[in-house]
Amino acid sequence: MTIRSYKGVEPKINLNTYIDESAVLVGQIEIGADSSIWPLVAARGDVNYIKIGERTNVQDGSVLHVTRKSNSAPNGYPLIIGDDVTIGHKAMLHGCVLGNRILVGMGAIIMDNAVVEDNVIIGGGSLVPPNKTLESGYLYVGSPVKQARKLTEAELAFLKVSADNYVVLKNEYLEEL
Asked: pTM above the 0.90 mark?
């Protein structure tokens, strides 16, 4: 794996976390316990910080980045991802905030200053535009996303199951090292 410092700041990775050898992590990144970063993920915490919670998985080919401080955004936009989040293959997250128990579908894009509350599913290929808030308990689809419907009890339960399944998988990968 490629883990690099930027301006003297290195990623902080919990010991019980799996980082694939092809992933690239640069700068101010913090990754919580039991999380996993899969092949070809690129994460740059260079002009702001990235914080990834516990039991969160970032799947193959995803891109994580941030927005620098500016006159229009004095604090810039860090990327903050909560606990028990599943980020599907080739998702792009840029300077946004994700709560807990979220499923980001494959190829979804979430842009600057968007906020995704807890217990949300974002359909594959969806676009969450800047400054949009996605309310807890719903499925969102489309480009730009629209609230499709309330999540069922089974879907709400699946959000935790998905994260738990990736904890099991990352443990299997760690046993191989």
From this structure: yes
